[in-house]
Amino acid sequence: MKMRMKNLIVLIWFLLLPILLLAQVNSNHVYVNGYYRSNGTYVKGYYRTAPNSTNRDNFSTKGNVNPYTGKPGWITPDNNTYNYTYSNTYSKPSYNSSNSYNSHYSSNPTYNSTSSSNYSYKTEWKANSTGYNFYFKGHNVSTTHEWRGNDLVVYYDNYAYLLEDYKLKKDGKIRLARNIPTWKYDGKGYYFYVDGKSVANETEHLKFGNDLLVKYKENVYLLPNFFNETNSNLKTAIELPKWKSTGNSYYFYINDNNVSDKTRNEWFNENLIVYYGNNGYILLDYKNQKDGKLKVALPIPTWSSNGNSYCFYLYGESIANKTTYKWNGNDLIVTYQGKDYILPNCKNLKDGKVRFALDGN
User: What are the residue ranges spanned by the domains of the chain?
Assistant: First the structure.
């Protein structure tokens, strides 16, 4: 099966190098469409860097590597300077915490307003069948929230916390809430918060398609659909999983927890596709990356079908109800925000098994 995943391939390459960035390579990539020569030979489409005044940031320049082919550069760099098309801005804006966040479910949990003074040093939560209590620095505070699978993401000021397995833990027990980095975009640059602190000036970033990859310390985060954002509301960043292999098996970490025994996998050329729940990830060049060093996995769109309907997941979020579709033989073409995804042989695969979707553009 040939995978048509232009945008995904752009993202995938990012992880082969020491996390993050390419200091010399132009982050603005241009796709050149395939064409037929006069003798009938077809030349495949390819990516190149956008033209500018220097060759120092080209894939073909010595010291750089083509992210799509892995081929090192061979051309001598010139003496011109180069500028990236996107530059970050940093400041410490004030933030209005009254912004609301809509749940992906029609039934939202409620929060209770009883106070507590027993939790002075930890951010904790508890839930029962009627709702949850959220304790921030010893105080039960009012929050907004959104679903993320079985988890609940809770927002308070510039903070966001993950209430892991919320749907399965409504027993009234106190549990720790996991802090999630947050971000917002003001039309010029991004603000990035970790544990409520603005740390954008301590990050590195790389533009890939409409998304932004941000490195902070040892972690890499995905800011989905970053360049299509039209508001400055606070949003959560997605911490990308890590993996390593020593040759016989792999270790797969989500939020620093080893969940390898809860995954399944399948080969795709030299890469490995790993599934964790409804989520799919690609381990780039897995067959050749067995040095035991931690690398980053990237999320890929996934789907499943039980015969009467389909489920579609992007960045771990169930978005089938936000898509449109049409049939192309046995394949289903799913469209989300103007982008097409292919669910191969969907008409015959009705076993509910999660599979990865192909790029239809």
Answer: 1-85, 88-240, 242-300, 302-359
